[in-house]
Amino acid sequence: MGIRWKVLAIxxxxxxxxxxxxxxxxxxxxxxxxxEPWWGSGDPSKEDKSIRPFTVNVxxxxxxxxxxxxxxxxxxxxxxxxxxxxxxMNTNLLNEIVTFWRTKYNWREREKLFNKxxxxxxxxxxxxxxxxxxxxxxxxxxxxxxxxLHGWPGSVREFYEAIPLLTTPQKDKNFVFEVIVASLPGxxxxxxxxxxxxxxxxxxxVFKNLMKRLGFEKYYVQGGDFGHIVLHHLAxxxxxxxxxxxxxxxxxxxxxxxxxxxFGTIFPSLVTRPExxxxxxxxxxxxxxxxxxxxxLHIQATKPDTIGVALRDSPxxxxxxxxxxxxxxxxxxxxxxxxxxxxEYYNYADLLDNVxxxxxxxxxxxxxxxxxxxxxxxxxxxxxxxxxxxxxxACARFKNDFYAADGVxxxxxxxxxxxxxxxxxxxxxxxxxxxxxxxxxMAVEKFENYHAKQT
Length: 455
Known about the structure:
By secondary structure, the protein is α/β, with parallel strands linked by helices. Helices cover about 45% and strands about 15% of the residues.
């Protein structure tokens, strides 16, 4: 894009924003006060506030049904000559994974892995919420509560390798974490709502109430993907309960950020460091990648129940739909590899564990509804994703994931105390648990120092 056209584009955007009052650009509105509806089918006056131990236990009948469906899946349509992942999940790769699933994947052994950490259910606003709760061994160190939330198409399984790292003392830190890993409502072993309206803002209220049920008045939070979105809402709506916010998917979509980025097309150094210019100003690549990689979002934000029928009925289709996101989500260039690059960072058993979380409870339809409940006019009209988080924050940027430029981060994270950059992709805790965990420790150390200075 030439300088002339850049200048014209800037003026066009300024005119487009003319309808906004300048104070709305510079000073976002106050967060709304939301009700906390009853999402279940029971009687609100008879809410069960007990905490019940939970064990993953799949019946033999369900396992036989799964095996039958895998054994009798229809033959795959061969991929086009010379293609890898450009048309979606390469069926040669899918055949290899499904063959492993049919012949080598041992659920009873994997079930032991799922049950290695203490798990519980408790009813919050009418729906059972599933969570893992792991405390460190007795220690003289300060023990800090940390809530971890996954996104789509992930699950609590993403954090299994990070949990022992987070709950083990580090030699240079005077604290350790007590970890709560929760399944989002409608995901995995958490119940979904029986009526419309349970979007990210409402889920924030659910998790605020979950942590209160567990006895935590204030705690640290960490999330990526939809976990990030839900926790952003939590930090904005209920900042009094959030001691610090850590995300591996910091994104900034505010009007003022858009203006800054547009000016950055002429002076990139105003918004980003030189080595990161291509991440935001490789416009043709950016637009084509967004078009190629976000089709699922439009479907799930508009008609989740239609595709939900197919994914709930076919384990092979479910695996294709989920694992395709692990190829390009880990590294978009893996789209050009027939093996999808999956074995570079994962093994098939671990990836199928995550698929099984969706299959066991048939939760893909209720999981996908989160998109339609969040990306709609009413929910987006709340404007919470454009409101700054007024608690200490940290952003771990992974090279192959969404990228927020340095110069716009302060729009949503005015108390950004920690910013780091790593190679890696969208599923950071799953792909790189050591790096992920170390970054959380580094960020929270800065949060703790910040709080110490405030007292």
